[in-house]
Amino acid sequence: MNIISVLASRAWISLTTLPTDQAAWNVVAVTAVTTFGAGAVAIGTGFIEPVQDFNPPSIASLQAEPASMLPLLKPLSAFIFPSLLEELFWRGMILSPPPTSHLTSLPAPWLIEAGIVLVVHVATHPLAGRTVWPRGRKTFEDYRFLGLASIVLAGATVSYVVSGGSVWAAAFTHGVPVALWRDFFGGEAKLLQNSAKLNID
Length: 201
Known about the structure:
Layout: H1 3-16, H2 21-44, H3 50-53, H4 57-63, H5 70-77, H6 79-94, H7 108-130, H8 137-140, H9 143-162, H10 167-184, H11 187-191
């Protein structure tokens, strides 16, 4: 099999693998721990000011002329991009399928591979800030953002494992904290900063 066939096969398997009922509850638990953990770090480091930054989509919905339901649906888009598309590539295609759904039984080589994939995935954010998304460069290069991304992506990797290799589980764990930050706590404003204000080399 050539590399394209291997990647396509991995993607298909990850998309067609669905967690069992028990595994689904494990994914929910991992997502809750990941989200609360990332939230605590975000608040503790000052990356998020929970009172000042809180701006739920319902406010935009009421302020729209005429009133619109579209802002209320916007958080759902976080589960498609970046969550599902990124997880399909990084966990579903690049990372080898997990050999077991038991975290304590994972072999060292797979754990090393998963760690490398996670580090490279996190590192693509500053690269994106210098290339395809210069408006978000300041945020993408913020050590606090990179730390939070590491927490979220580690959680997504754990969900990927405990679900038996389901990219949907990884996308769920990835999507919940992203939607909360981006659409409820001012994340979008950070990502849409005027690139002219940034000190781009």
